[in-house]
Amino acid sequence: MKEKHTYKLQETLTYVLIWSVILVSPLLLEWLLAWTGDNVSFEWHRVFHVWKILLSYCILFCVHNWLLAPLLTRYHRRGYYFLCTTLLIVLFGFYQYKNKPHERPMMNGDPPPMEQVGEGPPADRPPLRRADQPKWRSPEDHRPPLLVGQHDMVAVTVLILIFAANMGVKYYFRHRIQEADLKELEHKNLEERLSYLRFQVNPHFLMNTLNNIHSLIDVDPERAQTAIVEFSRLLRYTLYDAEHAFVPFQKEVAFIQNYLELMRIRFSDEVDIQFNVSTPLPSGNIPPLIYACFLENAFKYGVSYQQPSFVHITFSEESAGRLHFSCINSLFPKSETNAISGGLGLRNVRQRLEIMFPNNHELVIQETESTYAIYLDIPLTT
């Protein structure tokens, strides 16, 4: 919306600038002639005469710009626009014809100019018509007066060019406004899609966390109580901070640490859980819960009560402004029908990355018979 107002203001300022230059030009031209010419003085009446002519064009431009042009650009009434514009041009041409001197050629029967009347024709002037000379030399010389003179044609042509230039400027800024509307619509669509994806992630993540706590209640009530405290911190993050498009990286790190503490309570020393972050912490913002599904999958498919298991998570700033994430875990597939790469969470992450970092992220998944590794590189936003 702000860009639309900016483009409309720019369009108005363009018209004001153009007409200011046009109206100042006669004044500068008169001053230049008086300054460079010999025995030529600055005459205001000549400037006022040109301004009077330009004023009629300016008034017609305003009528076209604010009354006629919207018929075509806004309401798409092409017939009305061309009819009204043609009528305005015809009326202007009639006004020029009625208020300007007519132009017609000298005919044989016309009286000579006053300066040619005398006792005898000068040697350098043609002789006057004799009394016995016919009024018309030939039928071809019998031409009626010109109804439309050169001055009228030039005036109408200038008006048509002004209208055409007005439409060109108007369509240029209208195209810019349409681009701004399209970007705003795309931005709203992306926000709706991201909100939908976050809405899917949060319940899915919370449901799995509650299942983890439920498994502790019968086995170790005290550890279950501690897990509920950790879970409250996770819930606070997902309810308040995760609603934003971006959050500080420090908050996402704190969320991951709380989640890992919850997993340590559940699995105790049975799983080798490592979390490494480069110090000092990289500064910048990232999408919230962008790593949640990776953590879930790591503990869902990478933990076994019968075999040694591990989950190793690392954050590092490989280059300025880019955050590198790696999650490597042991792999114990639960079933062939519930493959890691086809889960809902991972599909949502891929879609969010495509929306928020198009062609500016790298997601690599490497899977072997015993290990599963995810590498994600995204930019840190300010």
Can you put this structure into words, describing what you see?
- The protein is an alpha+beta fold and 382 residues long.
- The chain has 2 domains: 2-106 and 149-182, no CATH class; 196-379, 2-Layer Sandwich (Heat Shock Protein 90).
- The chain is built from 8 helices and 7 strands; from the N terminus they run αααααβαββαββαββ.
- A 5-stranded mixed beta sheet has the order 2-4-5-7-6, with helices on one face. The chain has a two-stranded antiparallel ribbon with strand order 1-3.
- A hairpin with a 2-residue loop joins strand 4 (309-319) and strand 5 (322-330).
- Helix 2 runs antiparallel to helix 3, helix 2 crosses helix 4 (150-217) and helix 4 (150-217) packs antiparallel against helix 5.
- The two termini are 24 Å apart.
- Residues 102-109, 114-119, 136-142 and 335-342 have low confidence and may be disordered.
The number of helical runs is: 8
C-alpha geometry: rod-shaped
Q: How do the SSEs run, as a string of H and E?
A: HHHHHEHEEHEEHEE
Instruction: Extract low-pLDDT stretches.
Output: 102-109, 114-119, 136-142, 335-342
Q: Tell me how many strands there are.
A: 7
Distance N terminus to C terminus?
Answer: 24 Å
> Could you tell me the radius of gyration in angstroms?
42 Å
Tell me what the CATH architecture of the largest domain is. 2-Layer Sandwich
Structural class: alpha+beta
CATH homologous superfamily assignment of the largest domain: Histidine kinase-like ATPase, C-terminal domain
* Mean of pLDDT: 80
Helix content: 55-70%
| Total count of domains | 2
CATH topology of the largest domain: Heat Shock Protein 90
Strand content: 5-15%
- Broad CATH class of the largest domain: Alpha Beta
Strand order of the largest sheet: 2-4-5-7-6
- Biggest sheet features: 5 strands, mixed
